[in-house]
Amino acid sequence: MLTAVKFRLYPFPDQARELDRQLSELNSLWNHALEERCAAWKKERRSLTFVQQCQELTRWRNFDREGLGRVNAQVAQECLARLNDAFQHFFRRVKSGEAPGFPRFNRETTSLTYPQAYDSVRLVPGRNGTRRLSLSRVGDLPIEVHRELPAGRTKTCTVEREGDRWYAVLIVEMADPVPPPDLPPRHPLGVDLGLSRLATLSTGEAVEAPRFLRRSEVQLKRQQRRLSRKRRGSHNWRKQKARVQRCHARVRDQRRDLAHQLTSTWAREHDLIAFEDLDVRSHLMGPFSKSTADAGWGMLRRFAEYKEARRSGRYVEVPSKGTTQSCSACARPHDPPLTLRDRTYECPCGLRLDRDVNAARNVLARALAIVGGDTPEVTPVEIGPPVARKGRRVRSMKQEPPSAVGAST
Ligand SMILES: [Zn+2]
Question: Mind listing the pLDDT tens digit for each residue in 224-248?
Answer without folding.
Answer: 999 999 999 999 999 999 999 889 8
